[in-house]
């Protein structure tokens, strides 16, 4: 048992140098997603149909592949940061909080890997 | 923690409701909904990369009215989150905090959102509505 107050124990260690990292990453990804998001939604609306040939041919275009990869990864990064803040605000209780945060991170990571694999395959092998 | 009845800071219910509050919580709600929609996006990409047959099976699933509703909702949420997000970015830059502006930019944002979301829903319906 310590006689130090919680405040006394926390003070004096200096900053972790990481205080604005989460906030800053969320702003960078949101700025990127303005053009990338508009490009993606408008591209979907401009597709003549959603047949496999059409979608595979569209995704196989070099610029589309690059933008698609940028859009998917930035979206998932932004989503990981945003859902984390929501969970931290509304989920109470140490165990359930940590488990939820862990699950969300892993889910976002796996979705990013799957999206990356799919877009690269569409780019280089045309999704055959 | 509840064993210690300390005074609490004023919470939501002490404030008179203003529509800017609804705009704020809708930003968070649309963001959470879009996060769920990323599963639809990634599944669509993976199916397309896996080949014509898996893709056809997924497309049949996506043509279900409930999934179409989800996709239409996702597009609506996307435009709302974008418009509201631009307003938040302006605040992050220190702009638009003075008295009349949060309400004015709120109305402006909703107007822009309504036009853009309405247009894209109409385009989606006219192009793919009959086919699916």
On the 0 to 100 scale, the average pLDDT of chain B is 90
Chains forming the largest contact: A-B, 33 and 34 residues
Low-confidence stretches of chain B: none
Helix content of chain A: over 70%
Number of distinct helices of chain A: 5
Tell me the β content of chain B: under 5%
Description of the molecule:
The complex is a heterodimer of chains A (128) and B (132). The radius of gyration of chain A is 21 Å and the shape is elongated. In chain A, helix 2 crosses helix 4 (62-90) and helix 3 (52-60) packs across helix 5. By secondary structure, chain A is mainly alpha-helical. The longest helix of chain A has 32 residues, at 94-125. Chain A is built from five helices and no strands. In chain B, helix 1 (19-50) packs across helix 3 and helix 3 packs antiparallel against helix 4 (101-129). The mean pLDDT of chain B is 90. Chain B is an all-alpha fold and 132 residues long. The A-B interface holds A 27, 30-31, 33-34, 37-38, 41, 45, 49-50, 52, 55-56, 59, 68, 72, 75-76, 79, 82-83, 86, 111, 114-115, 117-119, 121-122, 127-128 and B 28, 31-32, 34-35, 38-39, 41-42, 45-46, 48-52, 55-56, 59, 75, 78-79, 82, 85-86, 88-89, 92, 120, 123-124, 127-128, 131.
Q: What key phrases describe this protein's structure?
A:
heterodimer, A: 128 residues, mainly alpha, 79% helix, 0% strand, elongated, B: 132 residues, 76% helix
Summarize the structure.
Chain A has 128 residues and is mostly helical.
Question: Which helices and strands occur, and which strands form pairs?
Answer:
The complex is a heterodimer of chains A (128) and B (132).
Chain A: H1 6-10, H2 21-46, H3 52-60, H4 62-90, H5 94-125
Helix pairs in contact in A: 2-4, 3-5, 4-5
Chain B: H1 19-50, H2 52-62, H3 65-92, H4 101-129
């Amino acid at each position: 048992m310590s006689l130090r107050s919680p405040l006394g124990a926390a003070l004096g260690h200096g900053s972790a140098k990481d205080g604005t990292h989460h906030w800053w990453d969320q702003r960078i990804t949101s700025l990127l997603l303005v053009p990338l998001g508009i490009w993606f939604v408008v591209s979907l609306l401009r597709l003549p149909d959603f047949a496999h040939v059409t979608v595979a041919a569209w995704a196989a275009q070099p610029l589309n592949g690059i933008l698609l990869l940028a859009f998917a990864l930035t979206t998932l990064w932004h989503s990981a940061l945003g859902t984390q803040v929501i969970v931290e605000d509304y989920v109470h209780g140490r165990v359930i909080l940590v488990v939820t945060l862990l699950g969300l991170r892993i889910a976002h990571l796996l979705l990013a890997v799957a999206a990356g694999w799919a877009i690269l395959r569409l780019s280089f092998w045309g999704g055959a | 923690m509840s064993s210690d009845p300390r005074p609490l800071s004023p919470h939501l219910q002490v404030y008179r409701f203003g529509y800017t509050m609804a705009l704020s919580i809708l930003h968070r709600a649309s963001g959470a909904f879009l996060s769920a929609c990323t599963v639809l996006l990634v599944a669509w990409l993976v199916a397309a990369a896996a080949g014509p047959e898996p893709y056809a099976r997924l497309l049949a699933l996506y043509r279900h009215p409930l999934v179409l509703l989800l996709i239409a909702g996702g597009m609506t949420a996307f435009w709302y989150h974008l418009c509201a997000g631009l307003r938040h970015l302006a605040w992050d830059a220190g702009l638009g905090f003075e008295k009349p502006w949060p309400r004015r930019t709120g109305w402006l944002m909703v107007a822009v959102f309504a036009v853009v979301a309405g247009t894209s829903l109409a385009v989606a319906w006219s192009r793919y509505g009959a086919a699916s």
